[in-house]
Amino acid sequence: MRLAHRVKLIIEISATVLPLTPPGTGNLMDALQAVLKNPPINTKNQNVKERAEALVLKVLSSFKSSDIEKAVQSLDKNDVDLLMKYIYKGFERPSDNNSAFLLQWHEKALSAGGVGSIVRVLTARKTV
Amino acid sequence: MAYHSFLLEPISCHAWNKDRTQIALCPNNHDVHIYKKNGASWNKIHVLKEHNGQVTGIGWAPESNRIVTCGTDRNAYVWTLKADVWKPTLVILRINRAARCVQWSPKENKFAVGSGSRLISICYFEQENDWWVCKHIKKPIRSTILSLDWHPNNVLLAAGSSDFKCRIFSAYIKEVEEKPAPTPWGSKMPFGEVMFESSGTSGWVHGVTFSASGNRVAWASHDSTVAVAEGGKTPVITALCSETLPLLCVMFITENSLVAAGHDCYPVLFVYDAAKRTISFGGKLDVPKQSAQRGMTARERFQNLDKKATTETKEIVLESLHKNSISEISILEGGKTKCAKFCTTGMDGGMVIWDVKTLESAMKDLKIV
């Protein structure tokens, strides 16, 4: 996808996600679906990848612990694989406030996708 | 399901003779041991010592009773039985890396060796010189060939490689055979022609298999997927992302069902539906012993919660028959059309013979179409 198009997409998605800053809840499920659409897999632009990752982590952190399982169930197989990729990308840069919720997401995604989804994160040639 | 433990070392590769009374295997060293079935036990009757490196592939031709072995010493030997002694004949493969896998062709006039030199050696016997000659298939292979399987027409060869592709090549040798009839994979088959190249899965292709008719090829790759391609003008590829650890070997047991096994230590059944273009997970083919479910004391429960953050009562014990990864599957009875028995060997040095009928009755919703 062309860079300009991709940046425009990120701006669009930011528009849906920004209103989700607490205390407003907005529609988190929709935000999750939107943010997992069109991942920047084929681009070589690091900036785009970082913006996408930040957005995804923002959405993931705004979920309540009890809602995570439902959210994961609503995703299809490919989306669960993609979610796993973002979770592991998030693990690469641990900080005080992201490890806890990432681990919760990881547990739920693992029960949905199995170890196969983790293997696919490790063997994927084009990463998120 | 008979589990027999041969040794403590992993079994690198194995091959059965025609009537399934003898098995040749490599116990992860430079030799090949041949065991003969004696009632319920196995006796070692021959040791084939010739290789200078680990033997990575064994093929036993059922009709001509010849064994071909290949190893990390970059050589292959063809063994013939003369007066109850196996005599080796060296085959010069002209490779500069280890040989990884070997397969006799269905008519047993050729065999293919896959190697780390990024090529496949097709070897055939030249009568005038009384010598095995080999031809190379090089393009467009970019990395080690990990697995091979012949098409029933003796010409097409499926090769799984660590360059993430499964390809079908033509291994037509005009010196030993007639021009082959057209197949769904193509009609012009000069030597070395790529008839099909896979796409859609990533990860090293560990195992490939043709179906009995040769119209389908299935492969298992390291990203925990299993895929089936149906031959035709534009081959149709269907893939299934499995939830298990990667599978190392795969085999068609009927035209629509596949058995695969790998790092999860138990064989798994997949069913391919051509009409719906889907592969579905058929079931786990293992009959573990039911260990007594002892209740947990409150103390153990809190300890678990503290140490592992889990309240589950499952013990971390491998319940399958094989205790380590399964590396090879071979069909014993029934061929690929309607397999009745198949055998798996693995890194735990054990061999299990699986009976399809017993499995079908043991697992109620298992359907092998």
From TrEMBL, chain A:
- What are the UniProt keywords, alphabetically? Cytoplasm, Cytoskeleton
Listed under GO cellular component are: Arp2/3 protein complex
The reply to whether Cytoplasm figures as a keyword in the UniProt entry is yes
- One Pfam family this chain carries? P16-Arc
Presence of keyword Transcription regulation: no
Q: Which GO terms describe its biological process?
A: Arp2/3 complex-mediated actin nucleation; regulation of actin filament polymerization
Q: Where in the cell is it found?
A: Cytoplasm, Cytoskeleton
Q: What domain of life does the UniProt record list for this protein's source?
A: Eukaryota
Where the protein is mainly located, per its record?
A: cytoplasm
Its family?
Belongs to the ARPC5 family.
Q: What does this protein do?
A: Functions as component of the Arp2/3 complex which is involved in regulation of actin polymerization and together with an activating nucleation-promoting factor (NPF) mediates the formation of branched actin networks. Arp2/3 complex plays a critical role in the control of cell morphogenesis via the modulation of cell polarity development.
Q: Which PANTHER family match?
A: ARP2/3 COMPLEX 16 KD SUBUNIT P16-ARC
Q: What is this protein called?
A: Actin-related protein 2/3 complex subunit 5
Species of provenance: Aldrovandia affinis
From TrEMBL, chain B:
Intracellular or extracellular location(s) = Cytoplasm, Cytoskeleton; Nucleus
Instruction: Name the InterPro entries for this protein.
Output: ARPC1, WD40/YVTN_repeat-like_dom_sf, WD40_repeat_dom_sf, WD40_rpt
Matching entries from Gene3D superfamilies are given as: YVTN repeat-like/Quinoprotein amine dehydrogenase
Q: Which domain of life is it from?
A: Eukaryota
What Pfam families does UniProt report for this protein, alphabetically? WD40 (PF00400)
User: Where is this chain primarily localised?
Assistant: cytoplasm
Keywords noted in UniProt: Actin-binding, Cytoplasm, Cytoskeleton, Nucleus, Repeat, WD repeat
Q: What does this protein do?
A: Functions as component of the Arp2/3 complex which is involved in regulation of actin polymerization and together with an activating nucleation-promoting factor (NPF) mediates the formation of branched actin networks. Component of the Arp2/3 complex, a multiprotein complex that mediates actin polymerization upon stimulation by nucleation-promoting factor (NPF). The Arp2/3 complex mediates the formation of branched actin networks in the cytoplasm, providing the force for cell motility. In addition to its role in the cytoplasmic cytoskeleton, the Arp2/3 complex also promotes actin polymerization in the nucleus, thereby regulating gene transcription and repair of damaged DNA.
Q: Which family does it belong to?
A: Belongs to the WD repeat ARPC1 family.
Q: What is this protein called?
A: Actin-related protein 2/3 complex subunit
Organism classification, top ranks?
A: Eukaryota, Metazoa, Chordata, Craniata, Vertebrata
